[in-house]
């Protein structure tokens, strides 16, 4: 049971990074289907950072520097991929869905390509270091194991989700960002720089999402690498999660746990056939479809996607 | 009357392409006054005000604010001159509260404190007499509440000059009274209020002065106390101009369409059609006059079967008595329906009910053969109730409607398809083969291009690439080629040059000569008066009068168009 919860929390963390990143982007009115690719690129960047630092540290790495190095690299790579998406959809007003899909395919491929160059000799050690639990976790029995026994990235994810809710609902920046996603024309008329808000939201959102992929590789599976397809799959799940939690980052924490649980339960349960496993793995998507149906039937104005989601904004169209 | 002049417009001219929206307009606004800007549709009143609000920039002339020349290039610039405009279409965010909408984009350099802002808004509301719940979300609000939020939004940004674009169009009489109270309070506070309107009774009630615009030019600014509704209507519509449009007298008009008591609720909850009744006759053109948005569009669309009606009926009369029935416009099923209703007979007068002498149903092939041989006749005129029928059902009933909608590329044609494909939109159900017949539509397309002189590189050019006039020719050509009995056209000459306009007028007149009942929604009163036989005037979804176009006077129509329920207390 404890192992199940610990694993569920780990998968939830991957999804939560992706979900929060996507929510920030969608709040600016951009449906970013490039998130899976961006999460892959975040992985590539993070791994590159790890490998560089482990090279520098020469067998004696510091926990803090390793986390900082990999985090910064991961965010930069993911944000840079997000920047391509932003340039195409905000400035050049390309179709967001097509651009997003292209970014996903590009990101996954580029990650496989980049990872073939990365020196992975110290990944095992780096993985262990990054996933090292909070210092006092051992003394608290099962409680410590479930809630405190994770690497630092789990707590970063939760903090980011809570901070994101706060910024969106309690600050002027959040108000303006939501206005941009709801009605860019209104925001523009109110003197808000629509383009700047969209760019920043996409870059920040992409950067956060990228951490999800890196966390999975370095913390959860401790630095082993096959290919990007598993991270891409988590990316799609994260986008579904955004709908499931009705664009609310703090609900994303619980939603991610549920989705993560559904994902991991299939591997943990002993006497299920492979068919049953696949059915369980389908659950998150089924739930998402049900949520979409329910919110559409009740036509609840509060829990709808941002009104201008997916629409390009031309200032001339007044 | 020695009030300070706050805004002066000097020789403002604004063009959109070849169209002159405002021509050499000069007028002024004084401090602490309510000025009405009055004019018909398309007279340039909204364009002129948009230049003050920073939406458009004048091509010529200057704007002087408080004695200094001002450059207003954006709504933000307008605010820096303390000018705020409340548009007809509210710019509010549905899922935000009133307070969030009001503070949006303000106070960049202070701490974000919605509570302090709310206190400030409440103080302001008290001063001017607004009633508003600041924590209510916009999507839960009525139109009048949304308007209040828009007005507060402008005041919160410190505007001293407020422009309201047709503020009363969507309000109930009580709400209008409340709005007027607020406007008077603002005037008393020294603010200048400009109201764009075309409702004469409101002009008389609320404003201190009236500026009248006609066809882009400023006609006069008069003190309300020294004028009358009649005088204003005269200034608004101007002198009658005779147009050289051929107008033969209707020949043997027969009732074609009887519309009775149509009532329909719009999306905002107000009545867009209020008990509309009229009749359309074959061989005549019935004009519909009215300020844009008075229900013309909804009226035509509900006749065409596109809307759900609250009440009323639409009845189509098909003068088929003693004429043979054909499969050209009637389906086999419809023929059988008519046979069962006892509407049909053989040439020798025996009833045709689809059965033989022994009461056994006739074979499908036998029925087809006799109908195709022209041996089956109508006993009576066909009377069809069209209420709550979809366009497809109407077509299957064999009712020959043609509809030239206002929105040509939205409802009439598919912009990305070529002329042939657009022809096929009306005929794709013909024929029995699995594949569509492209030959006939191609012939039709070529016919239309030739006879209506459509300028196009070929029949395979996407319709959206054609100019507005040519798009309209393609649409009208297709609708006329369908051989209608009722032809409805909404603003068919909007955006067209003189020659194309006359071509369309002549096409309509030709249809009328062929015995079609033509319904023409127009905006130019001179055209309506010279083209139509009768003119129905609508205002606020109601019919305010049906006049004989040959004897009607322009100002008479102008008064009917602006006739609304009184808002006086």
What key phrases describe this protein's structure?
heterodimer, A: 318 residues, mainly alpha, ABC transporter involved in vitamin B12 uptake, BtuC, 75% helix, globular, B: 569 residues, alpha/beta, Rossmann fold, 4 domains, six-stranded mixed sheet, 19 helices, 22 strands, elongated
Task: Describe this structure as you would to a colleague.
The complex is a heterodimer of chains A (318) and B (569). Chain A is built from 13 helices and no strands. Chain A is mainly alpha-helical. Chain A has a single domain (2-303), classed as ABC transporter involved in vitamin B12 uptake, BtuC. In chain A, helix 1 (2-27) runs antiparallel to helix 12. The termini of chain A are far apart. With 569 residues, chain B is α/β, with parallel strands linked by helices. Chain B has four domains: 5-237, Rossmann fold, CATH 3.40.50; 253-318 and 386-400 and 483-552, Rossmann fold; 320-380, no CATH class; 413-482, no CATH class. Helices cover 33% and strands 24% of the residues of chain B. Chain B contains 19 helices and 22 strands. In chain B, helix 8 (229-237) packs across helix 19 (554-561), helix 14 (419-427) packs across helix 15 and helix 15 crosses helix 16. Chains A and B meet through helix 8 and helix 9 of A and helix 2 of B.
């Amino acid at each position: 049971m404890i192992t199940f919860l610990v694993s569920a929390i780990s998968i939830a963390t991957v999804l939560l990074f992706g979900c929060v990143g996507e929510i920030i982007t969608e709040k600016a009115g951009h449906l970013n289907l490039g998130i899976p690719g961006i999460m892959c690129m975040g992985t590539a960047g993070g791994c590159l950072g790890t490998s560089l630092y482990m090279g520098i540290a020469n067998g004696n790495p510091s926990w803090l520097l390793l986390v900082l190095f990999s985090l910064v690299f991961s965010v930069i790579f993911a944000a840079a991929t997000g920047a391509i998406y932003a340039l195409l959809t905000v400035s050049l007003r390309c179709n967001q869905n097509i651009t997003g899909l292209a970014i996903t395919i590009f990101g996954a491929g580029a990650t496989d390509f980049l990872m073939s160059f990365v020196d992975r000799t110290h990944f095992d050690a780096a993985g262990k270091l990054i996933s090292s639990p909070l210092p006092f976790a051992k003394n608290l029995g099962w409680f410590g194991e479930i809630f405190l026994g994770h690497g630092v990235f789990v707590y970063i994810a939760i903090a980011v989700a809570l901070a994101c809710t706060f910024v969106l609902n309690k600050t002027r920046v959040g108000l303006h960002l939501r206005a941009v996603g709801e009605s860019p024309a209104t925001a523009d008329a109110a003197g808000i720089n629509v383009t700047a808000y969209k760019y920043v939201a996409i870059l920040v959102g992409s950067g956060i999402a990228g951490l999800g992929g890196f966390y999975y590789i370095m913390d959860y599976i401790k630095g082993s690498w096959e290919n990007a397809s598993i991270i891409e799959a988590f990316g799609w799940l994260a986008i579904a999660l955004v709908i499931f939690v009705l664009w609310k980052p703090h609900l994303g924490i619980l939603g991610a746990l549920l989705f993560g649980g559904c994902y991991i339960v299939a591997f943990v349960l002993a006497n299920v056939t492979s068919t049953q496993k696949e059915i369980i793995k389908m659950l998150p998507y089924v739930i998402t479809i049900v949520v979409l149906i329910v919110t559409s039937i009740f036509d609840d104005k509060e829990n709808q996607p941002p009104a201008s989601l997916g629409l390009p904004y031309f200032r001339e169209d007044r | 009357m020695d009030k300070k002049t706050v805004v002066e417009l000097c020789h403002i001219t604004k063009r959109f392409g070849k169209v002159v929206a405002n021509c050499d307009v000069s007028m002024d606004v004084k401090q602490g006054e309510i000025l009405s800007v009055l004019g018909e549709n398309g007279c340039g009143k909204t364009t002129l005000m948009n230049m003050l609000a920073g939406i458009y920039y004048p091509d010529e002339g200057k704007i002087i604010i408080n004695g200094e020349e001002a450059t207003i290039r954006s709504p933000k610039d307008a605010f820096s001159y303390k000018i705020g405009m409340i548009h007809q279409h509210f710019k509010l965010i549905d899922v935000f509260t009133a307070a969030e909408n009001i503070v949006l984009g303000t106070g960049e350099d202070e701490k974000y404190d919605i509570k302090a802002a709310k206190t400030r808004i409440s103080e302001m509301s008290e001063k001017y007499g607004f009633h508003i719940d600041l924590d209510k979300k916009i999507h839960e609000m009525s139109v009048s509440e949304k308007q209040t939020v828009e007005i507060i939004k402008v005041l919160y940004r410190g505007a001293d000059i407020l422009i309201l674009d047709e503020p009363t169009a969507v309000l109930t009489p009580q709400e209008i009274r409340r709005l007027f109270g607020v406007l008077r309070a603002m005037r008393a506070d020294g603010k200048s209020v400009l109201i764009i309107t075309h409702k004469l009774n409101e002009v008389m009630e609320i404003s201190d002065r009236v500026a009248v615009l006609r066809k882009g030019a400023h006609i006069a600014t008069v003190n309300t106390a020294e004028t009358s509704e009649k005088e204003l209507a005269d200034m608004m519509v101007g002198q009658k101009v005779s147009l050289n449009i051929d107008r033969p007298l209707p020949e043997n008009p027969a009732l074609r369409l009887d519309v009775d008591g149509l009532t329909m609720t719009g999306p905002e909850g107000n009545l867009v059609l209020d008990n509309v009744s009229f009749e359309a006759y074959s061989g005549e053109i019935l004009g519909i006059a009215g300020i844009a948005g008075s229900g013309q569009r909804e009226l035509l669309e509900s006749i065409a079967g596109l809307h759900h009606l609250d009440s009323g009926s639409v009845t189509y009369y098909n003068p088929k008595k003693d004429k043979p029935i054909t499969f050209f416009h009637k389906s086999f099923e419809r023929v059988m329906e008519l046979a069962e209703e006892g509407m049909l007979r053989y040439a020798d007068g025996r009833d045709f009910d689809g059965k033989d002498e022994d009461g056994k149903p006739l074979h499908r092939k036998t029925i087809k053969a006799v109908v195709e041989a022209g041996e089956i006749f109508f006993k009576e005129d066909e009377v069809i109730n069209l209420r709550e029928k979809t366009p497809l059902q109407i077509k299957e009933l064999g009712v020959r409607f043609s509809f030239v909608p206002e929105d040509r590329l939205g409802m009439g044609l598919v912009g990305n398809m070529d002329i042939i494909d657009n022809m096929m939109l009306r005929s794709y159900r013909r024929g029995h083969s699995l594949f569509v017949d492209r030959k006939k539509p191609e012939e039709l397309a070529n016919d239309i291009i030739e006879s209506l002189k459509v300028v196009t590189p070929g029949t395979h050019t996407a319709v959206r690439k054609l100019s507005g006039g040519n798009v309209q020719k393609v649409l009208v050509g297709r609708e006329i080629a369908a051989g209608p009995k009722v032809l409805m056209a909404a603003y068919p000459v909007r955006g067209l040059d003189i020659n194309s306009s006359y071509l369309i007028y002549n096409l309509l007149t030709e249809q009328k000569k062929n015995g079609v009942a033509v319904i023409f929604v127009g905006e130019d009163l001179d055209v309506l008066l010279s083209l139509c036989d009768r003119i129905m005037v609508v205002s606020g979804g109601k019919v305010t009068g049906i006049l004989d176009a040959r004897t009607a006077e322009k100002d008479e129509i102008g008064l009917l168009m602006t006739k609304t329920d009184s808002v006086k207390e």
